[in-house]
Amino acid sequence: MRKRSGRRTARNPIRGPHSALTDFLASNNISAAQIRDDYEQRLQTAQQQAEQEAAQQEEAEDAVEDSEYQPDSPEEQTKKRKRQQAIEKTKKSKEFARRKARRAGEPDDDDDALANEMVDEKQRPMNPGQLANCKICKKRFTVTPYSKTGPRGGLLCADCSKKQKAPGKKAPAKKRSSGIGRRQNQKTLLDGDVSNGAPSLLETCIKKVGDNIDNIEEFGDLPPQLMHRLSQILSRNRAVNSRTLELFLRPQYRSIDLYDCAKLDTDAFHKILASMPGLTRLNLRFVTPFKDAVFEYILDRDLKIQDLQLDSPNLVSNGCWRQLFIKLGPQLQTLKLWNLDWAFDDETAEIMSNNCTGLRRLKLKHLWNIGDAALKSISSLKSLEHLSLNLKQETTNEPLLQMISQLGPNLRTLSLEEFQQVDDQLLQNIHDNCHHLSKLRLTSNATITDKGLADLFRDWKNPPLTFVDFQKLRDVDTGNPAGPPDPIGLASDGFKALMEHSGSKLETLNIASCRHITHAAFEEVFSEKKRYPALKSLDISFQLAVDDYVAQCIVRCCPALTRLVVFGCFGIRDLHIHRGVALIGLVTAKVTVD
Amino acid sequence: MATMRARQKIRAPRRGFASAQKTDDFDSIWTVLSSSLTEINTKNASALSFEELYRNAYKIVLMMRGEELYEKVKTLEQEWLQNEVQKRITGSISSSLIRSHKSVDVQDPASERRAAGEKFLAVLKGAWEDHQLCMGMITDVLMYMDRIVSGDHTKPSIYVAAMALFRDHVLRAAVSSDTQTNVANVLESTVLFMIQLERAGHMIERPLIRHCIQMLEGLYETTTEEESSKLYLTILEPAFLETSKEFYQAEGQRLLEIADATTFCRLASQRIAEEQERCRYTLSTITEQKILDLVDEELIRKNIEEVVNLEGTGVRYMLDHNQIDGLRNVYELNARVDKKKEALTKQVYSRIVELGREINASTTLAVQAPALSTGEKDAASGEKKSEKGKEKEKPAANQQTVIAIRWVDDILALKRQFDNIWGKAFLSDQGLQGSIMTSFSEFINMNPRCSEYLSLFFDENLKKGIKGKTESEVDTLLDNGITMLRYIKDKDLFETYYKKHLSRRLLMKRSASMDAERQMISKMKMEVGNQFTQRIEAMFKDMTISGDLTNSYKEHIARSGDPDQKRVDLEINVLTSTMWPMEIMPATKEGTVQLPCIFPREIDSLKQSFEKFYLDKHNGRKLSWQASMGTADVRASFHRSNGKVQRYELNVSTHALIILMLFNDVPSSESLTYEEIQVQTRIPDHDLIRNLQSLAVAPKTRVLKKEPMSKDVKPTDRFFFNNEFQSPFVKVRIGVVSGGANKVESLDQRKETEKKMNDERGGSIEAAIVRIMKQRKTLIHSQLMTEVLSQLSARFVPDVNMVKRRIESLIDREYLERVSEEPPTYGYVA
Amino acid sequence: MAEQSEYVTLVSYDGFEYILPRSAACISGTIRRMLDPSSKFSEALTGRCVLENMTGIVLEKVCEYFLYNEKHKDQTNVPDMEIPPELCLELLMAADYLDT
Fold first, then answer.
1. Which of A514, B93, B400, B493 gives a 20 to 30 Å CA spacing to B136?
2. What's the CA gap between B434 and B345, in Å, rounded?
3. Strands (DSSP E) along A307-422, which ranges?
């Protein structure tokens, strides 16, 4: 908390990514910060009042104090008062009760002594990195966030912590198996980690490094793939800051991947660019503090960036984007941008399309200011092989159709999310033009029909797909839960055609919420003789037709399955899965691992 | 910050501490590495430390120069392959291999070329194995490099790359500088040459070839190593299939020229087995299906029809000579290329129909010209011949029966033969069974009298044939007959005949075993259904009831204490008129009311006594007496001219009894004319003539004398009682001419039967139509037709026109109505 | 070649030797290949691997991991192995090197 507020009060008014609620409040002229500050202020005044009252009381009592008492200077008196108050408070706390219980039976069974100790501890500014004396062996050691408190208060050094833990080990271990253990299990499940046995030494060490990142001065000769992995783990721990950043800067490396740049400032970005002049790949996520100046630096230095991936660089202006594309465009091979709601408009997209002629991968997700016009200009990027789009503006069908006709023959990946207007005509275009796809994503649409999807897969010259995501292709009408008689979205026929076409090579399939697929269709697709040898990840969330039988058939038909997501599949009550399958989303059912 | 890191900082791994003493730059490390790799190539690795090599590669990769290392290793390997391996291999290729690269001449230089080929293959195999082993080791050592450099899949792993090098710099290397031919070409032609040798019957070094094939299977055209880009599939297999195709085209021709179906099939099966084995032990199993398909296509499919139809040795010959093994071979080959085995099926079918026609033909021939053909007839009819004597009618009819039975026997023999072939040679194939069945059905139904003949067959067997046979023999016999019944389409016609013949057997007590009769009925019930045997069973019931009736009547007489000494014993059969065949009741014949014949007094009183007894028991029934069906035992005294009296017991028909009784009142010298007899007895002309014939004309039973003495009976003829009647036996059975026994019908009778049949069928059809319409209420014409046909098909095949007529008739009678015209639809009128 | 011994020896750069079961050592992909009898390297012949870029301290920890891994083979909810923070980077390098 202290850290966060510290950041907030810094001169730099830039804030990290914030929640949807904050966005909403801001749009209604309410500031979350304001509310909190007000609250804290109220709290403080209330406390001050209480303190004052207490002080008055104390003064009254002081009058009848015994002679031994040496009145302190007023300043000291206030201190003392405060301390006494703190002790009283401490005595009421849970921690106090716990410690007391622990110490029961010991000779100096004195509440005040204990409370005194605890207050001591609290008041001592024990920041990690400071030095302290171990309470048991009296050695000096560096305090870390993980330093343990001794049985009589005070901190313990690493060795003594270990020893201390040993006798009381059994009890917490038991506890862990119930509540925390389950949460832990769910966490590893969501990570898809269900392999048995010990984790690899590599992973264990990376975790350890992540945990101790504050104590690391230098990574040494770590190879790039380890650096990448460390970057991921630090980002996940939200531990990338200008200090840890330095660990990643290597002049001889040509790529940098940081998945959380929220705590970096312009200087840090400049440092990256300055210390890695050979950079060809710049992959920065949560890059809110990224400003025009950084791009200008890139442009000045004439960096040879070919692969640019930025998530939410919302402070970059349109003008800067345009300049960037004009200068860097021809050398860019990959461009991935996420979450741009301020700049990057249709005109910028046009300039991008005109300049980035060698672009092979393009991903634009959650871009708020581009629409039909941008789609039209993207259609001219003839060299595109991988295209992923998720625009916020409502678009019409025509530009997309044109785009598929022009780019389709070359595409290997096509991902179109949340295009509400798309209809069967687009599928027809894909059918006619795309013959090299291996990855196809079409999601959140209630216009395309089952027949359209079935026709897409029937007699399609495209080889079998390896990745298919059709989630939320369904009719949305709460008044008619069964859906129209001619099914909308991915339903039985489309599903059968899809599996017929791609079943042999399919590795990932997401059909979450495609709620018109019937039980019979599942039975047919996952019947006795069918096998989907490559299918590793399957998401069938909210498929109400799936019951124990179908789920069992799925497990039988997909020997390579490692991840099965079944949120909201209430028909599953009792399921046998084989080892190595991460089954995600089941709450009440009985799951047996064979 | 400074204080924070004070003492507890975590050590970064020290840079290259292990090799601090050594030079640490790329070139020096590479020098060490490259010399070691060369050592590995020369199979000299035991002195090398894996760890050292691995660590060196690791160091280079950490220097971010992994890709350079990758390229250098590739270059090193390439040079090694070009300079060492390839030379060794081209050196092993003798000129004979290159020279005959294209030629397919197997003959003379074979042994020389063969030796050279084996040497070449052995060297190639050795080089390949070395390369694999060394690259395995090098890949292991360079594992770290592989993980980083080809980790993102932009480059193949070093192993894959090295395999591609072997492909390009060894296999695709020119054999010598002045030729386009490369090692792979030589390999291909050598392997094909070896296979050619093996096909010609020589032994070859299979494992050696197999090893080289495995090499081609382990190499790919592309670095992504798709299954389809295996060198084996791109280089060798097409060539192998191509030459195989040529070979089998020629082989097919060669075998056909031998013109022996059995040999063809044997050799073809052998070739198939050979190719299978070749794929397993010499080439690759992935080719198995392809080469087998090719053999099927080139050797079998293209020739099988010709083989099957080969004159003199084909399927027809095999069938005729019961060559089970040969047929099985044909069957198996044909099954390979054709699920329906059309060629074989067609031939079997036509042969069966042909044989069936022969049977049919010999039957008709015998029927048409009995006299002529008797000489050539088999033993069975030969016996009859002696009995035939001078009169022709009776033996002719008898002989026809014999022919009928022989027809059935012949067919059953044929069936047995084909069942045997089907089971043993055609492995009980479903399709062929169907075909055999239809072929039998076809020729059996070609004989318009099949139903009658079959019924006669049963009749004959149930009368005589089963005597002295065990139960199981009878069972098989009946089963065989039932099998034939299965083929007959007009089962109702059979039923008619069977009933007719059965009634005679029952009434005249000619049945050999009632058990057998009942068995027969239950078999028919199983085969054709309940409805079919209903009436036949009723006939049996009547017979049982009649037996009881006779007994109780006797008791009744005994009780009533009739003192009449000259009592006539009565054994009566009361038959339910609807259950028994119509034609045995002449009273109803042709609708004219025939007055009952006049019984003699004694008989008449007996008749009245029984009628009273019966009607007392069953009120409201009507008895009509069928004299033509009855028999009587008469004791007759013949007063010889010498004064002696000779007594004979005559077993005669009831009619004959009536006639004879007339002569009791006639002095021995006087006579009665035909007309007198007719008036006094009122026996129908037809019966009277027949009875008089048997009494006065038949040589052995001439109880009466006729004047003039001729065969025919004319109204003006006079009849005398023949006191001179002689017979070697005391009991003499006098049958009624052409009436007593079951025989083949005459043409008239046949027409009669057919007419009745049609009437009955009409009834069945109408019943079926009404049944269907009652259920469906309205129905389209075509649907009604199909339903009617399917309902009736178990009994007979209805004539479509007849069904149409019946529908019309039902409409006329307002059972049905036309509901609509387009499409024609009928409605049921309730 | 002599019958494969069940135990192998791992030697650190500074001369510490650790003897442990072959199966445990082969948890490392690198060591497994090193000892693979089909490759004819000296390590495979002698059953002794000198790891020139590891100190005794690191190698000891690595060996501890091998045994820990083998002990928990096919178990679920394996407790984490204790790693002293000051060693974690060196150990990370070693793990990468050994493909563990």
1. B93
2. 10
3. 307-311, 334-340, 361-367, 386-391, 413-417
CA distance A96 to A587: 37
* Cβ burial A552-563 (10 Å sphere, 16+ → b, else e): bbbbbbbeebbb
A198 touches C: beta carbon within 8 Å: yes
Burial label for B806, CB within 10 Å (0-12, 13-18, 19+), is: buried
More confident residue, B10 or B55: B55
Task: Inspect the interface and report whether the beta carbons of B10 and A215 lie closer than 8 Å.
Answer: yes
CATH code for position C65? 3.30.710.10
Cα–Cα distances in angstroms (integers) from residue B582 to residues B60, B459, B492, B579, B595, in the given order: 113, 19, 15, 9, 17
Task: Sort strands A563-565 and A582-584 into parallel, antiparallel or unpaired.
Answer: parallel
Q: Is residue C1 a part of any domain in this protein?
A: no
At B18 the pLDDT is 43
Residues in C touching A202 (Cβ below 8 Å): 92, 95-96, 100
pLDDT in tens, B656-714: 888 888 777 777 777 788 887 877 777 777 777 777 777 777 777 778 877 777 777 77
Q: Which residue has the higher pLDDT, B688 or B78?
A: B78
How large a percentage of chain B has pLDDT more than 90? 4
Note the helical H segments in B20-178: 26-41, 50-62, 66-80, 86-92, 95-99, 110-141, 143-149, 158-166
For A242-298, the pLDDT digits (tens) are: 889 988 998 888 889 999 999 999 999 999 999 998 899 999 999 988 999 999 999
User: What strand order describes the sheet that includes B825-828?
Assistant: B778-780, B825-828, B816-820
CB-CB under 8 Å, A220 with C88: no
Q: Are B488 and B454 in contact (CB under 8 A)?
A: yes
Check CB contact of B589 with chain C, cutoff 8 Å.
Answer: no
pLDDT tens for residues B572-592? 777 777 777 755 555 444 445
In this complex, which chains have at least 3 CB pairs below 8 Å with chain C? A, B
Give the pLDDT band (50/70/90) at residue B355: confident
Query: Who among C33, C93, C99 is closest to B13 (CB)?
Result: C93
Total domain count for chain C?
A: 1
Confidence (pTM) = 0.62
Q: In chain B, which residues have their Cβ closer than 8 Å to the Cβ of C93?
A: 13
Full domain range(s) for residue C28: 7-98
Look-up of token digits 């990574």: A219
CB B487 within 8 A of CB B441: yes
For B222-289, the DSSP string reads STT--GGGBHIIIIIHHHHHHHHHHHHHHHHHHHHHHT-HHHHHHHHHHHHHHHHHHHHHTS-GGGHH
Domains and CATH numbers, chain B: 17-229 (1.20.1310.10), 244-332 (no CATH), 339-447 (no CATH), 459-587 (1.20.1310.10), 628-733 (3.30.230.130), 752-828 (1.10.10.10)
CB A532 within 8 A of CB A558: yes
ipTM for this model: 0.94
Paired residues of A252 in beta bridges: none
Token digits of residue B129: 């194995």
Contact (CB<8Å) A142/B10: no
Residue C30, domain member (yes or no) = yes
Contacts of A131 in chain B (CB under 8 A): 3, 6
Q: A591 — contact with chain C (CB < 8 Å)? A: no
Gap between the Cα atoms of B10 and B7, Å rounded:
9
Q: How far is C64 from chain B (nearest CA, A)?
A: 19
> Which residues in B lie closer than 8 A to residue C51 (C-beta atoms)?
51
Mean pLDDT over the full length of chain A: 82
Q: Does residue C25 fall inside a structural domain?
A: yes
CB distance from A196 to chain C under 8 Å? Answer: yes
Q: What is the dihedral of CA C20, C21, C27, C30, to 10 degrees?
A: 70
